[in-house]
RNA sequence: GCCCCCAUAGCUCAACGGAUAGAGCGUAGCCCUCCGAAGGCUGAGAUGCAGGUUCGAUUCCUGCUGGGGGCACCA
């Protein structure tokens, strides 16, 4: 990649200078891409940084660096200059740009991938919905982030396994099963009757009984005791409610599978809290002997205060492992299944403080696992009217949201002819809906809350997934027409005298691999979104300003067609990294 | 009360400590006899407050204000 070459050159230049000037570190020296193309394809603040350390004028340092850079510049660089306050700007040569363009076309689906993480084993845990509870936009968010991170790591050559961790035991389950028992009794219905219902209806039923149980738990002391007792029974596996439990869990899981299918996620590993509880409890007992944990009021707690965190209960006074202990049991279990170099856990940020405690405990119990583990948290999904809550029923169900957007996509397609069959239209509507939802979630930097307004923020135009899909489809349409007319992709020839729209697009496209690498390194899906958005905008400006197939000259036509082909690749590959499909037509 | 996160245009979001703070929506207009108008073009419009560090601060530090999350047997 061009950037790596430049960084090396730049460091050489600085080193050569620092022999004369004394010690200067590389810490603050950056090589970035300027927003304004007049400032080159790459730019560095090296002279400014060095100037303050050597007490010289920035431009003077700049000239010194420039002398070295000009002497050693690779042929990918046409020109180097000192500008502004002392920035050093690099301009790529036409040959280098032509080469990159050709690469972007030739590499096809591989464009944007690298081998920098080849051989690295990565496990990514995400989505983590709980059986018996609703799959809402929060889960959709976690899924979009986790799937995107997985794909970004894969694009760096890593071997990635996706894991899903689901709470099939615990109070929420007890509440739902208790609610189930009650509701069946009240309505004198049998479980067998319920099984005749459709899957969504059964899942809806589960949502209702959970709400019922949760409400009773808070309002009715007797019910609360019953639920706690039921929780323990479910945990031990032996209960008269076993059938209700098993059925409910199965319905939930089947339903989740349906959603993963739509979202394009396949989990290699599926874990349940019920599977890791015992193991976690043993680890806690072991830790108790090592004085890592303490007994307190009949429970086993981790004294987080000693480490600047807060203390938390790992095994409750009933002797049951809490979520914290289960998480402790999960880590080694994952490692046995897949000896990872890196374990990424994606969750909402409401559990960050709690995760710090768990990871601290893990550090003391199994430091080698802790070192390989990273917790990535994303912001909360909030409605304009306030926060989501499954207890109050103020949630946006994941599938309802997809259906709503899909409906809007159908309306738009109904207005344009397009010549698509009914089935094709349905497929496209699905792709657009998933694309719109995923993009709207991924475009925001992780850690920030998302104000989710289904009316406004989930747009099918402007800064949206469908805009990218539309632009990609437009590119493909031109390529199809070229193919029909017997025009094939040539090698880039004369690219002198480019119009500004052509030049801007050309100088944007080759950055794609760098952007992907950065996004993977920084766990930043939104960086990919931003880049694709800019690229699509540049393409559309270019498209409106210059005819491709009807270009004035054949050479120009061939060159523009390459721009179209490269844009098509970058957009489709980028969308794929986001976990979004790009339709051929829409 | 303590801890963590956040604050940029009317709204939703960008901007490795750098050059004129970028987009989308909305708003005022313009562009389909030309490869796809889910599109393009032109306007108006923003860094919560007060200090500090720095050649340079939306970015780093401190305080304040406002919002969100968490703080022992839920996850």
Strand adjacency order, main sheet:
7-6-5-11-12
Helix content: 55-70%
| Terminal CA distance | 34 Å
Percent strand equals: 5-15%
CATH topology of the largest domain, anyone?
A: Rossmann fold
The unreliable regions are none
Beta strands, count: 15
CATH class of the largest domain: Alpha Beta
Discrete helix count:
21
- Biggest sheet, open or closed, and with what strands and sense? 5 strands, parallel
- So, the CATH homologous superfamily of the largest domain? HUPs
Key phrases:
single chain; 586 residues; alpha/beta; Gyrase A, domain 2; Rossmann fold; Isoleucyl-tRNA Synthetase, Domain 1; 3 domains; five-stranded parallel beta sheet; four-stranded antiparallel beta sheet; 21 helices; 57% helix; globular; RNA-binding
Could you characterize the architecture of this molecule?
This protein has 586 residues and is of the alpha/beta class. It has 3 domains: 2-92, Gyrase A, domain 2 (2-Layer Sandwich); 121-378, Rossmann fold (3-Layer(aba) Sandwich); 431-578, Isoleucyl-tRNA Synthetase, Domain 1. 57% of the residues lie in helices and 11% in strands. The chain contains 21 helices and 15 strands. The protein has a 5-stranded parallel β-sheet with strand order 7-6-5-11-12, sandwiched between helices. A 4-stranded antiparallel β-sheet has the order 1-2-4-3. Strands 8-9-10 form a 3-stranded antiparallel β-sheet. Strand 13 and strand 14 form a beta hairpin. The radius of gyration is 28 Å and the shape is globular.
